[in-house]
Amino acid sequence: MEKEDLKIVNSGLEDEMELSGYRLCRWKLVLVGLGGLCTGGFLFLLLYWMPEWCVKATCTRTAVRDAEVALLRSTDEFKRWFRARVRIILAPGKNPYDNLASQTASPQGNDHAHNLSDSAPEKITRNQGDQHVQIRYFTLHSTKYFWSDTIHNFEVLKGLEDLSMTCSSVHSKHSVGLNKNQQEYRRFFFGLNEIDVKVPSLFKLLIKEVLNPFYIFQLFSVILWCTDEYYYYAMAIVIMSVISIATSLYTIKKQYVMLHDMVATHSTVRVTVYRGENETEEALSTDLVPGDVIVIPSNGIIMPCDAVLICGTCIVNESMLTGESVPVTKTDLPNPQLDKKGGDGDMIYGTEEHKRHTLFCGTNVIQTRYYTGEMVKAVVVRTGFSTAKGQLIRSILYPKPTDFKLYRDAYLFLLCLVAVASIVFVYSLVMKIINQEPVKEIIVKSLDIITITVPPALPAAMTAGIVYAQRRLKKVGIFSISPQRINICGQLNLVCFDKTGTLTEDGLDMWGIQRTEDGRFHHSEEKADDKSLVTTKFVSCMATCHSLTKIEGQLSGDPLDLKMFEATGWILVEATEEETAQHDRIELTYVKPPNQLLPPPVISPEQDMELSELYELSASYMIGIVRQFSFSSALQRMSVVVRQIGERRMDAYLKGAPEVVASLCKKESVPEDFAEVLEDYTKQGFRVIALAHRRLESKLTFHKVQNINRDQIEKNMDFLGLIIMQNKLKTETPGVLEDLRRANIRTVMVTGDNMLTAISVARDCGMILPQDRVIIADALPPKDGQAAKINWHYADKPGKPSNKPTKLEEMEIIMEDGNSETRPQEQYHFAMSGKSFAVIIEHFQDLLQKLVLHGTVFARMAPDQKTQLVETLESVDYFVGMCGDGANDCGALKRAHAGISLSELEASVASPFTSTTPSITCVPNLIREGRAALITSFCVFKFMALYSIIQCLSVALLYSIRSNLGDFQFLFIDIAIILLIVFTMSLNSAWKELVARRPPSGLVSVPLLFSVLTQILICLGFQIMSFLLIQKFDWYSKPDIYNCSAPHHMDNSSEPKEENIMNDVNTTLFFISSFQYLIVAVVFSKGKPFRQPSYKNWPFVLSALILTIFLFFIMFVPISGIYQFLELVCVPLSWRVAMVIIVLGNTIVSVLIETVVLDVILWKHVFSRDKQGSYGVSPAGPTPQEGIELYGTKCLSWLCCRRRKVPKARYMHLAQELSVDPDWPPKPKSTTEAKPGPHPDDCSYQIEAVS
What we know:
By secondary structure, the protein is α+β, with helices and mostly antiparallel strands. The protein contains 37 helices and 42 strands.
C-alpha cells in the first residue's frame, strides 16, 4: 500500500519530492492531546520540530487522491520533511484552460473548502444552476499543487507552457486575449499575479524563534536553576536570551522587509489589456492571468509577468535577470504558418528556447518599435511565483540547507556531551541516594548536571566567529545572504572562473580586420573606416549586423557590437513613425556612412556640388535593417536581413563564432588556410568573429522576410573575413591566480568564448604553466551508425621543460599519505568545448570524472552546462567556488559551495556572495576569511566543550563531599570568564596570505579529537590532584570539613548544613578550574597559518590578562566583600602557593601537548593535511635532510597508523588510480570510442590509437 501510493512531484527538478497522503484520525488526535498535557506540552514541541512524526501521530495513511494532509520528503541528500493541508475549491471546471465563456465562475465553499485566491472577485455572484466540481490542492513554498485526474498525481500549473503550444498556435489561438469570465475563471487556479513576500508579524517571528530547541533547553535550565534558588545566574541567562532573541528578530525582520520592498517596488502597475477586435481596457497588473494579451506602451514598462511578444519589437534592460545592464532587443515570435516553406519549423514554445521573444517579469522595457497603426502586444505566459522573478525570489525565501561536515559533526559533538552528561547524571544520582538526600534535592541536582555539561550559550558562541567574519568581509566590499557558507569557503580547493568580465576586462578593443576575396585572405588591416572599404560588403556587414539601438540619442547595446560599429565610423538612424509609412508599415533602422568617407563624385570641374546632391549621394549608401535574428548563445551567431536604398533585392549578413560561420558558408568562399589563420589569432588570445554575406532571392518581400525561419536565411553564405578583437587581462588576475596556485587551490576557466582563445588566456594568466601540456578532448556524437567518440590532440606544443628543480607549488594531485616515492608526473590539462562536454556527459559517463580531474579550460559553455560542470566537480568531493559576473552564471553561482557574483545587479541576489568591486581579488579574501571563521568555530567549539567538562568535573567532585559551586561562582565563571573569552577569542582576523594547507573540514577529525581529549585528561588530572592533595594537609580536618580553614572564617555552628558551599575544597576547585578555563582558551586560540596571532587580538589578550591578574589578586589578597560575594574561604598561604604551582604545571603541560606534540610532531608527520587535495609536483629527489625527515615520518606513521589510508575524497582516490594507469592520459592522435568492453564490468569506452 505504502509503496503503491507514493507519488513523485516536480519529477526531475531541483525541488523533487516524494508525496504520501494521510487522513486525520480523531482517536489519534485525542491521544496526542492527552500526551501533550501529560508531558507539559513537550510532546507538542517534539511534533512541531518533526513534521513526519506529527503527521504519522495524528493521521492514518490513505490514497493520495483522498488525502486531507500531504506529507512530502525531498529526494535530495538532505531528505527534509514537509507537511501541507489539502484544501478543496468548488469551481465550474477542472481545467483552467477550458473555454467557459458562457459560465459564471464562482467558488463555493464548505467547512473544508477555501477560496484559492484571497482576492476572489466580489462582484461575481453564485449561479445556483451551475455544476461545480471539487478541485483539491495544497500550497507549499509559495507554489500551489493541484490534483490531476489525468496523471493521478498533484501537479504545478505554471502557465500557458503547460499546453505545449506551438509558435503558430500562440498566434492563432492565444493572440485575441480572454474575456472577463475566462479571466476570472483562470484566476481561481493561478491566483493574483503578485510575488507576495509576506513580512511575518513580530509575534509570529517571536513564537517561531522561541520554539527553537536551543531556547526551550534554556527555558528548562532557567526553571531548574530557579527551583535550586540560582536566581542571579538564571536572570543573567534570561537577559542574554532576550538580547539574543531581539537581535535575531531584528535581523530576520529587516531581511524580510528588504526583500518585500525590493519585490513590491514595481509589482503593481496599471496595464492595458487587449480584449480582441481592437478593444482595450485599463486594469491592474495583479488581475492578469496566463492567456491575457497586454499592450506594451511606447514609453516602456517594468514587466509585471512573463509574456511572449506577438507583435512589435522591444528594447529591454534585463539586468534583474542576467546581471548585464546592456539593453537587449526582443522581437516578436515567428509565425511559421505565414511562411510557406516553414511548415516543419513550427517549434513548441518555451521561455528558455524563445527567450529572445519573451519579456520576463521584473525586466525593464525601455522603448518599443511597432508597425504603424498597430499595437505592440504580448501574450501573458506565466504569473506570480511561476515567473522568472518569482523563481528567483523563491530561491531566496526557501534556500537549500547548507550541507557541511562541521554542522553535522556539531550534532555528534553535542551527543557526546549529552552522553558525558548522562554518565555524570547517573553518578550524581547514586551519590545523592547514598547520602540519603531528599528526593527533590536528588532530582534537581542530578538534572543540574545536564545543564552544566550541555552549555546553553554554545550556539551563540559558535555564530560569533561567522558574524565577525561577515563584518570584515563587508569592509572589503563582499556581502553575503548566507553567512553560514562563510565557514564552507574555508574548505574551497577548486575555483571556477568565467573569462570575459571576470579574468579579462569587460570591454573589447578593435585590433584589426582580415578580409577575404575569391576564397583567399588579404593581409590584415588595422582600420575599417578607410575610404577604400566604405562600400565593401565586409564593412556593410559590420555596420548592420548588430542589435544596437538609440536610447535618448545615445547608442546602446552589446559592448562587442558597439566597438564593431564604432570602428566603421557609420551613423545609425532610427526612422520616425511618419517615415515608416513609406516602407510598407514596417519600422526600419538605417545605417549610413558619414559624408567624408564617401568616394568623390565624378563631376566636371566647373560644376559645383550642392548640398542636396551631397545628401542624395549619402542616401544612396543608406542601408535599412529589415529583419534581425538576435544573437543566440546556443547557435553562437546572429544575422540580419537588410536592403540598400534603391536596390530591389535584399541581402543577409551573418556574424558569429568563426567555426559556426564557416560551416554555413559555401566551401569555395572559405580560404583553405582558414583553420591555420584562426588558430594563429586564437593562440595569441584574440577574440575572433567571422562575417558572411548572401544575396537573397528577389521573390522575398518585406512581409515574407518578417515570418521566415532563420535557418532558411543562414545558409549558402559567402565568407567575408574575420574581425580580430583584443580582450585584455585585468591587471590583478595573474597575481590572484598565482596566490591560489600556491595555496593548492585548483583554478578552472568556464567561458562562452572560443577554446583556443580561452587556452591562450589561461596560459597568459598562469592558470596553465608554460611547460604544461594541453590535451583537447574533441567529442563527436554518434553519426551514421558509428558510436560516439573522442579525438585527443595537443592544443599546441609544450614549452621545453626547465632543468631547475621542480617547485613544490607546481601542480599535481598528491595522496593523503604523502608518499613521495611515486613517479613524478608530467603535467597535463584537458580542454573541451560545450558540445564535447554534452557528448561526454551523455555517452562517456565513466570518463567524465577522470576528465574533470585535470580539466582546466571549458569553452563555448552554455549556462546550464556551467551548472552541470559544477555538479560534476562536487560529485568527486571537490569544494567548489564559482566566480562570475552574473550574466550567464546564475545557476552555477547558486549550485557551487560558494558562488561569488561580481555584479551588484538584482540577478546576483540569489548568489551567496556579492562583491562590490568587479575584481577576482575577492576570491582569496573570501577564502582567507572562510578559513579564519572555520578555525574560530573549531576553537570555540573545543573551548566550550572543555568548559563544560571542566565545570562538570568540579561539580561532580564537590557532590562527592556534599558541596557545590555557589550561585555567584557560577555567575562569575559563565559571565565574566566564559562569555568574555568566547566573544573576544573569535575576534582574530584572517592571516594575510593563503597557505598551502587547508583546515580540517569537520570536528570529528583525529587532530581535533586528540587536542580535546588530551586537554580533558590534563584538566581532569590536575583537578583530581588538587582535590586529593588538599585532604592530605594537617589543617584539613575531616570532622570540620564544612568549616572554613581560616580562623576568622571558622563556622562553629553545631548543626551541619545540607549543602555547604563555603569550604576549602570548593575554594580550591573554584580557583583551579577558573585558571583552567583561561589556560585552554589561550592554548586553543591559535593564529598562523589561518588567523592572525592571538597577541594581535588585543581585546582577547586584555581580557585574559585582567582575569588572570584578578584571580591572583583575590587569591593572595582575601578581601572580605569579594570572598563573601563569591562564597570563598581563606586557605593557608602555603596552599595558595601550592595552587600557583599546580596552575603553572597545568599551563606548561597543556601548552607543550598542544603546540609541540600536536602542532609540530603529530600534525606535521602523522595528521598532515598539507598534501590533502593539493595540486603540486613531488620533488625529483629528497635532500639528505629531507631524507632524514622522510624516514622519521615513515616510522611515526607506521607506529600511529600501520595500515595505509585510502583517500576519503573521491578525486584523490581517482588520482591514485590514474597515477598507475599506463593508458592515462590518452596519447595524442588517439581516439576513444563509446563501445562496450569484452566484459560487462569494463568501462563503457575503449581507447584506440590512430596511426
